[in-house]
Design brief:
The protein is of the alpha+beta class. Helices cover about 35% and strands about 15% of the residues. The chain has 2 helices and 2 strands. Strands 1-2 form a two-stranded parallel ribbon. Strand 1, helix 1 and strand 2 form a beta-alpha-beta unit. The longest helix has 16 residues, at about 20-35.
Length: about 70
Amino acid sequence: VEGLVIVAERDPDSDPSGDDQAIEDIRAAVSQKHGVQPQDVRIVAPGRLPRSTANKIARRVAAKAYLDGEL
């Protein structure tokens, strides 16, 4: 089953205790603006998302990490 998954890195200066509220806000914003309900929203620690040598998020690697339960 395919669905929209959002994985975002927490700002290094942010307190992880705000993650639950941020996830609710992200779900609401995506639903309101795009009419789609995300299947999953995760916030990970800074530096956890895989990046390319150009410092762009390596989306395929990140997707595999998510599916493998690593994110």
